[in-house]
Each structure stands twice: as structure tokens, then as C-alpha cells.
Design brief:
With 152 residues, the chain is mostly helical. The chain folds into 2 domains: 39 residues; 101 residues, no CATH class. It is 55% helix and 0% strand. The chain contains 8 helices and no strands. The longest helix has 26 residues. The termini are far apart.
Length: 152
């Protein structure tokens, strides 16, 4: 047997062994051995998710939304028509206080509304700016007279 043939056989054996180890390891991890890319177990962990988040963070700087001011975040879900998912979207935009919502101008409302996804239109329909103005100034009685009991 020539030296070239021997090297070729060794090369083929190494390639087959490497392929076997790769498939075996993927099977132990619960992955699909035929998959070409690793699976992402958690959202927000892939390169495209990271890039999308970076673009959104940069674009949020151009929204020119009111500053949150000092103090802890408000419980935005006290407002009628604003649930946990919509509150999370607002928080991601940097809106964490009633005062910020109360001070939104028409252009800012349109910009925020465009980012609300399935909740688009809720700002006007549920009168978030008006509700937030009562809650920002601590007028619980005024809020409840106009919108119903808090927490319902």
C-alpha cells in the first residue's frame, strides 16, 4: 500500500469519526442531528434578537419621550385598558410613570402607538393620557368618578 493511500484512509477515518462524535453529541443534547444551526433555547439569545434589540434601543432615543423623573416606577396597570403586556412595552420604551403618559403630545402618542403592536389604538380608545393625568397628580377620587374604581 502506498503512502498516499495510507494517508487518504487515515483522513477518511478521522472525518467519519468527527462526524460520528458531532452527531452523537447533538443527540445527547436533545438536538436534531440534521440541523445546521444550534437551537436557541431562550428568546433574546440569538444574534438577530440582539441586533433587533440594539436597533430598538437606538431608535427609542429618537422618540423624544418625556423623562421619567425621580422616584420608583408607577404601577401602570392601574389604568383601565392597560394590562401587563402593554405595560411591559411601555417600560421597554422608557415609559414607567403616569406623569410621562400624561405629558405625551400628539406626535409622541403616534410614535408610541406605532410600537404597541396588537395594542395599537389603545392610547386614544382607553384615554390613557387622561387617566394618567389623574393618577399622576394623585387624584384617586377624580379618577374613580370618571373611570371607575381603581383595581377593577
Amino acid at each position: 500500500m502506498s503512502q498516499t493511500t495510507t494517508l487518504l484512509i487515515i483522513f477518511i477515518v478521522l472525518v467519519v469519526a468527527a462526524a460520528f462524535l458531532f452527531i452523537w453529541r447533538r443527540r445527547d443534547e436533545g438536538g436534531d442531528p440534521g440541523a445546521h444551526a444550534p437551537k436557541i433555547e431562550e428568546p433574546g439569545r440569538g444574534i438577530t434578537d440582539e441586533a433587533a434589540l440594539a436597533v430598538e434601543n437606538v431608535s427609542n432615543q429618537f422618540l423624544n419621550l418625556p423623562s421619567p423623573g425621580e422616584g420608583p416606577p408607577d404601577e401602570l396597570t392601574l389604568m383601565k385598558g392597560l394590562g401587563p403586556r402593554a405595560a411591559a412595552i411601555l417600560n421597554d420604551l422608557g415609559i414607567i410613570r403616569f406623569e410621562q403618559i400624561a405629558n405625551l403630545n400628539e406626535q409622541q402618542i403616534a410614535q408610541v402607538d406605532d410600537r404597541l403592536g396588537t395594542f395599537k389604538g389603545r392610547i386614544a380608545r382607553d384615554r390613557w393620557v387622561e387617566q394618567a393625568s389623574y393618577l399622576a397628580r394623585g387624584d384617586k377620587a377624580g379618577f374613580e368618578a370618571k373611570f371607575g374604581k381603581l383595581g377593577d
